[in-house]
Amino acid sequence: MPDIPLRAKPPKIKKDRAHRETNIGGKSHLKDTRDEYDVIVIGSGLAGLTSANCMAKQGRKVLLLEQHYILGGLAQYFKRRGHIFDISLHGFPIGMKKTLRKYWSKELANNIEQVKSVRFDNPQFTLETTFTREDFTRIIVEEFGIPEEKVVGFYDHLAAMNYYDENTMTTREMFEMFFPGRTDVWRLLMEPISYANGSTLDEPAISYGIVFSNFMSKGVYIYNGGTDDMINKMEQILIDNGVDIRTKCLVQKIHVENGIATGVTVNGQRIKAKCLISNAGIHPTINKLVGPENFSKDFISQLDDVKVNTSSCQVYIGIDKEEDVPYFGDLVFTSTHPEYDSDALTAMDITSRTYSVYYPEMRPERNRYTIVASINSKYNDWADLSDAEYQTAKDKMIDETIQSLEKYVPNIREKIHYLEAATPRTVEYYTLSHMGTSFGTKFDGLKISQELPNQVKGLYHAGSVGIIMSGWLGAANYGVIISNSADKYIASLEQS
Ligand SMILES: Cc1cc2nc3c(=O)[nH]c(=O)nc-3n(C[C@H](O)[C@H](O)[C@H](O)COP(=O)(O)OP(=O)(O)OC[C@H]3O[C@@H](n4cnc5c(N)ncnc54)[C@H](O)[C@@H]3O)c2cc1C
Questions:
Q1: pLDDT band at residue 312, thresholds of 50, 70 and 90?
Q2: 464 CB under 6 A from ligand 1?
Q3: Strands 36-42 and 269-278
Q4: Does any ligand 1 atom lie closer than 6 A to the CB of residue 76?
Q5: Domain enclosing residue 204, as ranges
């Protein structure tokens, strides 16, 4: 084992969106494509993959175009020096099991397992939970001393919320109503959700309610086998169902004629389709691929108001193959900040990190430990750093993360074999996600996404928009919903 862990070398070129978009693959990646498909899916995130699969199962001719050399989008992994690092496999709701079973395969669904231990460690409390309603109730009543009827009242209030109601209450106001001044309870209830999707106390309580009811009621789940296993199996299912998959294929233009989507230009080649599903972000789909001139002014001004969620930094820690890491939880939310504070969660001066620990059971055939530290971050803090500043900030983030990890694994430094870090710039570079967002847009993006086919016939968007349609489960489910609409549209063309 090296005395000093191996670190990724600084890139020789600035890896940014412009570089990605000007270094596209050639037409050879499109060899033997048809002139026309029933549907072209742009992007292979979980929404794009699931849409493509559903459409193919309906018997449609599907072309799936992905600009990266690998499928998955943000549901991604990478291999370095014998380690496999998962980027977004930290936890999702139980619903993922049903979605995989219904729209992919039983085999995939059988790999969904509950995360055993979720831990919190911050100046206000240190505790372990199963992330279920029962366990949260127990903790808030027994450890935080809140009367049970208050907690039940809070849950009843969440259950009665309706997404379509006009509801202006913020999450802060709702917490103040049920747990006045109890910032420790607010932290327990809010911090995991902020980590997951960057939401703050000043956003609508309804969006909090939906995520809480979905995510924090029946535990946290993970795909056992790793992202690579899931994406590889999905790729095989797509091939079996007849999807024409093309990677290194950047869609440069969506063509619209007389208000109807007619096809794309990809790697400089034009291909026609009856219908398009874009899994690229909602902003780039409208502003870059289609062009704002194809939409009403009112629609574009609504899009301008849609904010994207924050981005992420990650530190990837590969443990030497001869070493092990004593169990210290599967998902560990840590912070040294005195109270919950959404600004502090995304600050360059990092005080909060979530550790995902992948024990050898995740990929038994490799028998390795890896740890991924996730840190919420703002794109603009990283976007304009010079190359030297960028490298210094990355090195600082890695060093401080190892230091903070020593609290949980005292001799961790001696065990590390490989280190690497990602920033919002990395997220943007590999997935072209708008401002490197990890969870797409805030809740108002959903309305724009759903309105798209009313603006341009035959054009659909599937991807992380709004709180309910984000994350692995939300993206996959939205892919199903959109494929149903797209399928009906194609059927209507066939009848006319
Ligand atoms: C660090 C991090 C941690 C996360 N942790 C979790 C978690 O624990 N649990 C959870 O549920 N979710 C998590 N997420 C979020 C989750 O991964 C995403 O919400 C989800 O995967 C997004 O899927 P999507 O379908 O919206 O598309 P994306 O994953 O954004 O994929 C879009 C695809 O489109 C491609 N594309 C874009 N433009 C073009 C173009 N012009 N031509 C061709 N292809 C194009 C991109 O390359 C990409 O493959 C995390 C995300 C990040 C970044």
A1: very high
A2: yes
A3: parallel
A4: no
A5: 132-215
